[in-house]
C-alpha cells in the first residue's frame, strides 16, 4: 500500500439508533474553538492519537479534518457558522469541538445552541465519574459514576418568553384570562414550556439503549411532575411507555418487589423516577443508586453542573450533543479568553470528550487507556494550574506538559 493511502480516511456511516459503521480510518471533524480552544485542541489531538495507536497499532487511525466555526470562521469567511461547516457535519457525522465564544451582536443567540438546533442534536450527554487524585468536596466521590441525558431541544431551550408589561405578554395574558379562565396579573412576565411526546420519548429511548448497551443497572427519570403535571408529569409517563418498547429488558422499579423479590436479575435495567429536588439529595447521599439520568432541559442543566462539581468541577467534565445522524463532542467549559495562547488551561474536558467520542465509535480500548492514564498522571504530580493549586506535592504543569504526561502514563 503506498504511504499516502494511510492518510486517506473514510466517512462514518449508519446512525445512532441502528448503529454506526466505523471504518478503520474514520474522518472525524474538529472545530478548534475560540479563546483557549486552540491551546486545548493542540493538547488533545496527540493524546487521542496516542491512545488509538497504543490500543490498535497501525490497524486504526483517526483522520482529522478541520471545519471552521466561531472567530476563526469569521476571519476567513465573514460568517461565524459557514454553510460548508454544517454541510460537512451532516456528511461526516462525528466531530470534536472546542469552546466557542458567543459573538456579541453577531445575530446568534449562541453558536452552540444554533448547532444543536440546526443539526437536531437532541440529547446533551454528560458522563460524570471520579478520577482518583482530583480534588472533590465529597467524602466518597468514587461512588459517583453517572451519565446524564438532558433533552436539548424543548422546555426552556425553546426560548419562548415575553418581558413583563410587553405588548406580547399582555396580549397572551389577556387571552389566557379571557379564553382559558386564568387570573394572571397583567404585569407578569410570561414563559411557555413546550414538551412533546416525540422529543421526550426519543431522549428517554436513547438513555435506555445506552444503559442496556453499557450494562448500567438503572435509568432514572428526573422530573417535577408533582407541580407541572402536563409537562414534567407527562415526561415521566412517557418514560414508562418507552420502557414497554424493551419488554423483559427494562423493568419499572415498582415491579422489583412485585416480580423480582427486590433484586433485579442481571442484564436488566431498572427504570426509576425521582422528583428533581429529591434527586439532588439522592446524588449527594446515595450516589451509588443512580447510573443513568434522563431529564428535560432545565433540570438537566442544573444536575449536570452540580454533579460535575461533586467530582471536581467543570474543567474536568466532558460532554456531547447527539442526534440520530450527527454527534458533536465538546468541552463543557467556555473559551476562557483571558488565558488564550498561554498554554495554561486544563485540557481534560476536551480530552475526556475525545474519549467519549472514541467510545461512541466503539473504540473502547483506546478510551480506557485515557481513563486509566489520568489518575496516574495526577499521582505523578503533573497537573494544570487549576488542580495543582489544590493538590499537595504538585507543581503547576502547562496544558501541553499535562497532555504529554497523559501520553507517558498510558500503559
Ligand atoms: P469560561 O468557562 O470560558 O471561563 C470561566 C473561568 O473558568 C475562566 O476564567 C477560568 O478561570 C475557568 N476555566 C474555564 N475553562 C477552564 C479550563 N479548561 N481550565 C482551567 N480553568 C478553566 O466561561 P465564561 O467566561 O463565562 O465564557 C467565556 C465565553 O465562552 C463566552 O463567550 C461564553 O458564551 C462561551 N461559552 C462557550 C461554551 C461552549 O462552547 N460550549 C460554554 C460556556 C461558555
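Sequence proposed for the structure above (411 residues):
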Amino acid at each position: 500500500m503506498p504511504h499516502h493511502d494511510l492518510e486517506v480516511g473514510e466517512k462514518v456511516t449508519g446512525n445512532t439508533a441502528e448503529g454506526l459503521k466505523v471504518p478503520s480510518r474514520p474522518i472525524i471533524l474538529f472545530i478548534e474553538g475560540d479563546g483557549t480552544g486552540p491551546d486545548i485542541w493542540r493538547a488533545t489531538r496527540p493524546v487521542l492519537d496516542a491512545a488509538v495507536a497504543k490500543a490498535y497499532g497501525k490497524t486504526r487511525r483517526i483522520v482529522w479534518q478541520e471545519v471552521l466555526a466561531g472567530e476563526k470562521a469569521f476571519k476567513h469567511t465573514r460568517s461565524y457558522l459557514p454553510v460548508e461547516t454544517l454541510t460537512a457535519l451532516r456528511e461526516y457525522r462525528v466531530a470534536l469541538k472546542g469552546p466557542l465564544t458567543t459573538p456579541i451582536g453577531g445575530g446568534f443567540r449562541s453558536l452552540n445552541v444554533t448547532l444543536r438546533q440546526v443539526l437536531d442534536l437532541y440529547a446533551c450527554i454528560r458522563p460524570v465519574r471520579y478520577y482518583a487524585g482530583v480534588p472533590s468536596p465529597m467524602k466518597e466521590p468514587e461512588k459517583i459514576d453517572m451519565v446524564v441525558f438532558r433533552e436539548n431541544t424543548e422546555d426552556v431551550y425553546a426560548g419562548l418568553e415575553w418581558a413583563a408589561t410587553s405588548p406580547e405578554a399582555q396580549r397572551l395574558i389577556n387571552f389566557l384570562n379571557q379564553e382559558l379562565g386564568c387570573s394572571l396579573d397583567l404585569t407578569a412576565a410570561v414563559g411557555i414550556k413546550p414538551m412533546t411526546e416525540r422529543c421526550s420519548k426519543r431522549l428517554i429511548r436513547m438513555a435506555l439503549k445506552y444503559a442496556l448497551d453499557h450494562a448500567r443497572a438503572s435509568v432514572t427519570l428526573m422530573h417535577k411532575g408533582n407541580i407541572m403535571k402536563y409537562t414534567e408529569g407527562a415526561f415521566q409517563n412517557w418514560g414508562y411507555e418507552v420502557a414497554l418498547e424493551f419488554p423483559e429488558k427494562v423493568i419499572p422499579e415498582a415491579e422489583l418487589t412485585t416480580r423480582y423479590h427486590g433484586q433485579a436479575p442481571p442484564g436488566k435495567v431498572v427504570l426509576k423516577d425521582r422528583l428533581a429536588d429529591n434527586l439532588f439529595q439522592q446524588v449527594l447521599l446515595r450516589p451509588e443508586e443512580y447510573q443513568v439520568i434522563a431529564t428535560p432541559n432545565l433540570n438537566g442543566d442544573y444536575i449536570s453542573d452540580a454533579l460535575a462539581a461533586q467530582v471536581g468541577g467543570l474543567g474536568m467534565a466532558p460532554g456531547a450533543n447527539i442526534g440520530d445522524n450527527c454527534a458533536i463532542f465538546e468541552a463543557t467549559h467556555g473559551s476562557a479568553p483571558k488565558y488564550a495562547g498561554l498554554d495554561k488551561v486544563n485540557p481534560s474536558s476536551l480530552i475526556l470528550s475525545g474519549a467519549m467520542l472514541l467510545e461512541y465509535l466503539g473504540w473502547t480500548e483506546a478510551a480506557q487507556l485515557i481513563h486509566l492514564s489520568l489518575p496516574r498522571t495526577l499521582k505523578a504530580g503533573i497537573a494544570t494550574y487549576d488542580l495543582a493549586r489544590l493538590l499537595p506535592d504538585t507543581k503547576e504543569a502547562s496544558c501541553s506538559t499535562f497532555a504529554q504526561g497523559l501520553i507517558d502514563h498510558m500503559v
